[in-house]
Every structure is written in structure tokens, then in C-alpha cells.
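Appendix B. One record, verbatim.
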Amino acid sequence: MAYRNYSVAGRGGFSRQPYYNSGYRFNSREDYRDESEGNWKYSRGGGRQARKHTGAKTGMGKNGKPYVSGWNYSRTAGMVTYFAHPYKGTKRKNSKPGRTWENWILKVFSKRTMQEFIKPCLFEPATGKVICGDLSLVMNPKTNFCGRNYRKN
């Protein structure tokens, strides 16, 4: 006598899960035991990795000068790209705590509105961070982050 597997959805058997779930536990908070380690583990969203919404990287231009580029995606603003680079009037300044800064230019381009504008920003050569106070924006290539900088009061 042939036995059918009644626990697998979509293979001719009967399943108690909805047909669109196909046996996977999407967005469930169920716990399960990992047999290899013997520890209890908790699933967080069914094993799907979250989409990346931000990024930053640094590089050298054709003229040998460094640049920092970044992007940020949100539902309200859409895809926004940032490109920071030095200009011919760039100078190094030292702050009171002893940090060195350079004044750079930041080009901002919004794909949703198709507008581009330019803002002044500061670059810290020691860490590679670009900070724009007008937009409260921080680009950090070491952590691959480009986003808002909010201060806690």
C-alpha cells in the first residue's frame, strides 16, 4: 500500500495551512528547537532578510581626489542619492576638540522629483564621515550608512 504525505502543501496532500503559505512560517513568533545545538531558537519573520534601505561608499575620482557617495530609500522620499566631493576652495580646519574637518560640496538627487540641488557639508578625514548640518545627514562609509542624524534632547 502506498502512503501519501499529507503534511506537505501543494503536492497532492491535504494541508491545514492556507494554500498561499505553502508550509512556511512567515511573520510567525513560534519557537523551535535546533537539534544540532540543543538550544531553543526564535524565528523572526520567517527567515527572510530585510531589504537594505541605505548605503555609503568612498573612492578616488579620476583627478585623484576622494569622494563619498551614498543613497537612502524611504517610502515618502523615494530613492535619494548623495555625492560629496571637495571643490577648489576646500580648506582644512581644526576644531576645539582637535578634530580635523574639510569643507566639501554635497550634491543631492531625488529620483522621485527628478531634482538636484547642492549643499555645503563637512568631511572628517580621520573617520571618512560626511556630515551635512542643513539636511541633518550623515554618510559613514565604514559602517555603510547614509541617513538622518537626530540628537536626543
